[in-house]
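[User]
Um, tokens okay?
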Amino acid sequence: MYAEISESAPIEEEWTEWYRLTPAQRWQETQKLWAFYLEAGGSLDPEPDTQSPFYVAFTRRPFSPHGRSGLRILRRSGI
């Protein structure tokens, strides 16, 4: 099921260690990496794909501080 790693294969030592881990051990190491990535300020938000046909070139404006729309309400005065 799993390929054997031969000592003569030109693979970096770090990868050899990774390949020798069991799937459960790899999962644990991956969880540690994700935790570090998020602590270091990483984001799980997807990067915009400019090649996608669904890509929208405009960006969203930030929300107003009061949470309502940014439109001004004009008073109606005896016009």
